[in-house]
Structures are given as C-alpha cells and as structure tokens.
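User: My advisor, Dr. K., asked me to get a structural model of this assembly before our group meeting. I'm new to this, so sorry if the format is off. These are the inputs:
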Amino acid sequence: MVHQFENNGYKIVMDVESGSIHVVDDVAFDVIPLFEKNSLNEIVEQLSDRYTADAVRESYNEVKELKEEGQLFTEDNYESYMNGFKAFKPVVKAMCLHIAHDCNLACKYCFAEEGEYHGRRALMSFEVGKAALDYLVKNSGSRRNLEVDFFGGEPLMNFDVVKKLVEYGRSIEKEYNKNFRFTLTTNGVLLNDEVMDFVNKECGNVVLSTDGRKEVHDKMRPFRNGKGSYEMIIPKFQKMAESRNQTNYYVRGTYTHFNKDFSKDVIHMADLGFKQISVEPVVAPPSEDYAITSEDLPELLEQYDILAKEMLERKKNGKDFNFFHFMIDLEGGPCVAKRLSGCGSGTSYLAVTPWGDFYPCHQFVGNEDFLLGNVFDGIKRTDLQDKFKLCNVYSKENCKDCFAKFYCSGGCAANSYNFSNDINGSYDIGCELQKKRVECAIMLKAAEADLI
Amino acid sequence: MKHIKTLSTRDLKGSMKKGGCGECQTSCQSACKTSCTVGNQSCENNK
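Assistant: The format is fine. Below is the predicted structure of the whole assembly, which you can bring to the meeting.
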C-alpha cells in the first residue's frame, strides 16, 4: 500500500508495508499513482501537459527500481505471521498500579471521575501492591524488562506505599533476573524535594500533568474548591525537569473543545523551558461540552501543521523540544510484530485497582464487564483475555487499509470500545488526528534530512 | 536518484526474522495513556 501526501512543501510517499519513506519531486509524485495500472507510454501521454517525456521516463525508471528493491508497492503478507504470534500464551510485562483511587484535584475531564473510577475512594495497601509485583514476576516468562507505572488518581497521596513497593521490587530483581522500570504520573500538588529525589533515583520516566496556558490549565484542572492549580505546580515541574537534565520525563496535557488552538499550549510549555512535551486530545462522550467533535477536526489538524512548522523554526534557532506524538524512530523503531500486535492491553499490560482487581488497562477500570481477575487468584476471564489477545491491526476492519497502521498499531482498544462498543471497532476522530500526527512526524524527518 | 530521495528506515520485512522479543516499552507506559503510539518506541535489540 502506498500513501502520498504533501506537507510544508514536501511531497512524501510512504510504502507502508516495507516501512520505506521517499521524498519526491513533482514528476515522481504524479507518476507513482499511475505506475501500477498503466504502461510507460500511457503515463508519458497522461502527463504530457505537465512534464517532458524524458522527465517522466526517468522518474518511471526510478519507481521501477524501487519496486524491484522492495521499497515501493510492497505487498502485505503479515497477516499469517501475526496469526502465529496470536497462538502464544500471553506473558505480562507491564502493570499500571492504581496506587490511589483518590485525588487532590478535580479535573473536569478526568476519566477516573476525580480518582474514584465510578467506585469508591481507596488507597492500595502494600500487601496488594506486593502481590501485584509477585504476579508480574511470576507471569512474565522470559521477559526481563518489567514496567510498573504508579498511577491514580494521584499516586503521591499514597507515597509511602510507592516507596515500599519500589524497595520490594528492587529486592527481588536479582533473584528472578528481572529489571523493573518504574514510572510515576503526577499532578504535582504533593511534589516536593523528597519526592523528586526518590523519582530521580528510581523512576526511568515521570509524567507531569499540565494543560499549558494558565487559563486553559486552571479551567480544567482546578482544586476541589474551584481554585486553579497552575501557580502551585508549574515551578515544581520546572524544578523536576531541570533536576533530570530535561530528559526522561514528559509534561503531559490534554486538549479539549475549549482549547482547539492547543499548539499555543504546547508552545507555552516550551517557553516555560520544558523540552519533553506531550499534549493529547481528550477522550470523552459527545454529551460533554468539552468533548471534541468532528466539526473541530479541520482546526485541530491545522494546529498540528502549525506546531510542526514552529518546531522546525525553533530547531533552526537552537530552541528545539520534543513533542511526543511527532517523535518517530525511523531507523531504530519497533519490529513489525510490535507494530501490528496492538498496545498489549489485557495481555502483556494490566491495570491493577487499589484492592487488587485486574482490568485490561487503566481506561477500562471500573467497568465490571472487563474485570479480568485479581492479583491473588490470577486471570479468571480467559475468554475476555483471548479477545484482547486477538485484537490487532488485522482484526480491525478500518485498520487494514490505513497507512498509519504501522505507527498506531490499531489504536486504543478502550477508545474503540467507548465509541463503537467493540474493541475491534474504531474511534474515527482519534484516527483522523493520529493520521495527521504521523504525516507531520514524517515531514519533520524529511525536513531534518534536508532532502530535495 | 534524481527524482526520489529515500529516507533511511528500518526494513520491516526483515524485522520479521528477529522481531517479537517483547522487551520494548509498552506504549501506554510512556506518556500517552489515551492513544496508542508505537512508532516512536525504540527497539531494545538495536541498543
């Protein structure tokens, strides 16, 4: 499958199945769509009003050479390969520990319902957390790198247990030949020097939640008394980022219908000195006033273009920063198995509630239909786990012919379920935004390579 | 080539031979939590 697009003056051709990416001139851009179904003479004739016959012939021969080298018009023969992968018994390698179902903020878009996840306020005990780590170690097969995210609610409301679990995890690493990679996601309210020292020592990544401009952040991320949290958390986040040498962290925001001009929020974060930035669209039912609608799409797509151009400018001026969704590792990126097998929710990735229940991921927590089992008894709903195991690019009708399938891996199962009532369905607005992000990311690579 | 410049990319077909070790980062453990992004994950075997 070939996907062609123009962005910021670059004409780009993606050969989806081989992963090849070509930056082409006008002639090649027009020859490629005609190549498969027309002879050379027919193409010369069809393009005669725009290009000389010599130019079309040259271009045609280059396309032909790339096809012969397996870099254009590559066929998709991965489905049977993926079927082989699906036969494997799942091993778990990542856990999202809901260390606190409670929060000291009252963010308006919180899918966790201010930390409560449609349930009760609760803090995870050390015993439950320990059982989760034990389960992870025992069910991780030969996987050495085990990822554990301390999530909430707000995990720092249960910091003592976080510390004890890290200590416990480190104490069993050698015995089982495992390497724990701990991460923490926080709203910053309880961030202090002690926490920063701990995070810098133990956590490979820390996610710092902020939405950008003060008015945007404070509107959606207030305390329970309605007061905004921006003034309190930003200086702490800046200190945290600096203390990590501006690496291995993200300031992470959510944009909504209320800040469709979200590129300004990303730039605001960059102006505050942050170098690792992630800002994502809110996922919310259409009934919410802040939900993104299909009418918002043209403006949102343009925002990604604006952001990409601004990032290029800043790079030229030595003021570059990373935007998570434009980061793409073309040469050292994941293998095709990773790209096609989905996020791993329900199989290699599990969320654990404060009382030890397993759900396929944090987004499903609280929906009893997706309760998989618990840390003490293991997975009980193997039927449900099998459904997640089979969920991949080829089980999703809308993904098969999408050029972005190797970059999003079929998207988020929870989003698909929330919008189509089926984990193999799709969330169309999310797909459009994802496709745009992939195009911008590739344009940035083309610009960086300074080709043509 | 005169009309086409190819960016250096990983050979996806070739990655079938040695791929699938499962050691790389789970996408939602990075920074997303609401969208699936695997294209920016790094392969542990290339380190």
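One thing worth pointing out at the meeting: Residues 301 and 436 of chain A are 6 Å apart (CA to CA).

User: Perfect, thanks a lot.
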